[in-house]
Amino acid sequence: MILAIHYIGKNGPISKEKLFDYLTQFSDKEEFEKKGKKSLAGATTDVLYNIRVLQFVTGDDKNLVLTSSLTNDHINLYSGKQVYAAYLSNDKEGALLMLQTNALYYSPEIRDLAAFIFRRKKLSKSDIGMEYDRKNVFGHSFNPFTIDTSLVELERLSLLEKHKIGETAPSYIIVNLHNLIFAQLLVEEYCELKDKDGTVPLRSMKERFSLKYNMNYPEFDERFSILKNSLLPDLIVGGSYEKFSINMDIAQELNLYE
Predict the structure, then answer these.
(1) Among candidates 103, 60, 108, 107, which has minimal Cα distance to 83?
(2) Same topology between domain 107-174 and domain 179-253
(3) What percent of the chain has pLDDT over 70?
(4) Average pLDDT of every residue of the chain
(5) Which residue has the higher pLDDT, 105 or 239?
(6) How far apart are the C-alpha atoms of 109 and 67, rounded to whole Å?
(7) For 172-197, what is the mean pLDDT?
(8) pTM of the full predicted structure?
(9) Which of 36, 145, 216, 228 would suit a FRET pair with 182, their CA atoms being 20 to 30 Å apart?
(10) DSSP secondary-structure letter at 229?
(11) Strands lying side by side in the sheet with 200-201
């Protein structure tokens, strides 16, 4: 996706055909034929579909251009031009973070799957299938195919790794806890810990994340600050005596809680 964004940013507006011609040079054609995967045309169509859904690209098939800005009242998302600028400045980590943020927002069911795996530390595909097959999450109904594609998407976003040892079935591990996944976990834990007045002592939440997710206090503080001050500025409501609450209307609007 980053290669497609870079090409459109450098040459746009361009046609879909020119983008596909460019992308096919990075595909292993022999691998596609050997494994019987979808055609190269189908693969490049998926790339364009994804960067459109994630709001990085706009325009019709003859005039593809990068989005210049995205506006959302409650979350800071990224435009195609921001990803392009990060790539040009050789900030590949920043460009990937932007892709991850938009993907986990526009595909909340994938984020929910990632949160589930993170809670359980390590899971086989059969374990995941037992939980998610035929499960409806944020309006998305999972089946074996969409479970597979979701796992592949999380791998492509560098959030998930598949480990295989010997002849055993592979296990899936979350290797990068994006702050939107953290936000979903925070909302879930808040619902369990909140007092009658709707607040939670910050220290109690830190202790919960330390015991349950092995997250030390400095990491929690940093992630909590990012949510409050930049990524989701309206989600967390500060209170007295080092307590806080969650705006649950916003949490539901952002698909952080059903």
Answers:
(1) 103
(2) yes
(3) 91
(4) 90
(5) 105
(6) 24
(7) 96
(8) 0.90
(9) 145
(10) I
(11) 200-201, 243-246, 236-238
Instruction: Judge contact between 243 and 200, C-beta under 8 A.
Output: yes
| Phi, psi of 173, deg, nearest 5 | -135, 135
Q: Given this model, what pLDDT does residue 139 score? A: 92
- Do 113 and 41 touch, CB atoms closer than 8 A? no
Nearest to 104 by CA among 122, 78, 81: 78
Give the angle 222-94-68 at the CA atoms, nearest 5°. 115
Q: Between 1.10.3210, 3.40.50, 1.10.10, 1.10.150, what CATH number should domain 179-253 receive?
A: 1.10.10
Residue 166 pLDDT > 80, yes or no?
no
| Residue 55 near residue 106, CB atoms below 8 Å | yes
CATH of domain 107-174: 1.10.10.10
Element housing 172 (H / E): strand 171-174
145 contacts: CB under 8 Å, gap ≥ 6: none
Return the domain boundaries, the chain.
2-104, 107-174, 179-253
Which tokens is 30 given?
Answer: 């022999």
